[in-house]
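Quick question: what would this complex look like in 3D?
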Amino acid sequence: MKIHEYQAKALFKEYNIRTVDGVVATTPDEAVATARQMGLPVVLKAQVHVGGRGKAGGVKVVREAAQVAPTAKQILGLTIKGLPVRKVLVTPAVNIGKEVYLSLLIDRGKRKAVFIGCAEGGIEIEVTAKQSPEKILRCEVAAKDLARLDPGVLADFAEKLFPETGQADATAELMCRMGRLFAEKDASLIEINPLITDDQGQVIALDAKVLLDDNALFRHPELLTLRDLDSEDADELAAKEVGLSFIRLDGSIGCMVNGAGLAMATMDTIKHFGGAPANFLDVGGSSDPKKVVHAFKMILKDTEVRVILVNIFGGITRCDDIAKGLLASLKEFEVKVPIVIRLVGTNEAEGRALLEGTPLISAETLEAGATKAAEIGGRS
Amino acid sequence: MSILIDGAGKVIVQGITGRDGSFHTQQMIEYGTTIVGGVTPGKGGRTAFGVPIFDTVGEAVEKTGADVSVMYVPAKFAKPAMLDAAASALKLLVVITEGVPTLDVLEAYEALTAKGIRLIGPNCPGLISPGKCKVGIMPGDIHTPGPVGVISRSGTLTYEIVKALTDAGLGQSTCIGIGGDPVIGSKFTDLLPLFEADPETEAVVIVGEIGGRDEVDAAEYFKNHMKKRVVGFMAGLTAPPGRRMGHAGAIVGGEDDTAASKIAKLEAAGIPVARLISDVVTLLKK
């Protein structure tokens, strides 16, 4: 789950990771009031769930009182990578001494938690990692130790970021706190870009990015309130609630598949035969007929959909349950588009028998089904 | 021959009394898997499916001589169950459970690896050596014994490919679903060496998807260490970037983990990649 910078900074504060206090504004007037209280100069930062805010004009330093309102208005009017900016974080501007990059994440390949650092700050870490890999620092830590790291173990790493002794010690302490936050809140990424020293020599997290592990949210009910519903597609959220995995795309062929890998392969096959998928939809492992009805409702909401391809490989999912869901959907909705169906696996015969006499177009294989759907749905 | 499991393996089921655990225990027994016990904390001393239930994996292994455990424990309780397995003398732990927190998997992986216990999964269908032993949830009847090894990050997509193989007369030595999570116990590169060493496996199919660099590592491993043929299939050519496609691990983060980039790297290493499921068979028969 993504959270905003201001929310990440609140978590930092909870863990004594020094940051710059800020206030969130949703209107230019609020921004003006906040800036007046803080005193100029201030930094206005768009709160939006994408990277590259600075480049998109979403981060601005304001030095004159008269400029706060127009700058806030401009940022609040931005749409960055498809997401409208609804909140702006107002923080006091800080005099930067030195800036570096620091993050804690899970290295999938090595199956380790790892600190990543770079003595150059404000960089795009992926670009630096590719162009100058020698500049990237790594420090692997065991998952079981994350909540109680020993600053001594991190001393070398910290010293490479900030060679001055006091700053290196503060950085190692900060990394221990990051570890505890990571472990206790089940983060999947904590990124500070940049981590700075100010003109007093204090080590401060100027920015904060935290990603949370969706699988672990069941044990952090307090974090659920951080979800920004405005930033997420309402249909996709509704789907999640009933145990479906759904992502809307811009094609004309609605898809309903069991299993995420097969759902992707089904979309790819449709494309291979010249069609364009309207969505990704995994009905999941179980086969509650109600889920099928819900899936149909979401597919049919999209008026661009000209044909629906149902591809089921029964395992845990039973074909007769899917068939029952299909029949219930036909009864409940006025389905005007043709439905191509391919049913294989557990209780296949029962499923097919149930669907006899319906106008559904049956296909023997995924490839045959995708070809038919592409013919009806129009080539892209 | 086969890898990891064969007819001689003794298997216990963690979560044998649960809804999924009991259903699939029955299915595994019907397939011919030797189930020797179950583990459900607090229910030790009872029996299920004619085998004894124990409170801990350690006790179950000691009393039954089991070397494999398959786990259907709900995600909330998966961590203690995995650590329980790590405290035993098992050889292989297969975690079917979906939705296990990543840090729990990491910690269990560290504990299991320290003891030399191999982890398959989590969030996977398990593995099967057709005609001998099934440890997982895949439909047994689509498989048939033969010379093709299969390693896959997916569930139903694997069944689809296995069925195509079986229909074309290409049997399988062992089929392993390694799981769709970001952190998994066994990756392509952990298992390819076992297939390379297995005298009855003649070719391997790897089924990958968007996200991560496991397929790229597999391509490098193949190029440097393998003589047997490997054929690939990659799901997610049409997946939009930045979106999680169902599996927790299936998300395109950069340019390198797209399906197209993976296909290019696999093909450059000498692994032909099928664009359609039916092409997997065509490529193997070439």
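Answer marked as accepted. The domain at 138-285 of chain B is CATH 3.40.50.261 (Rossmann fold).
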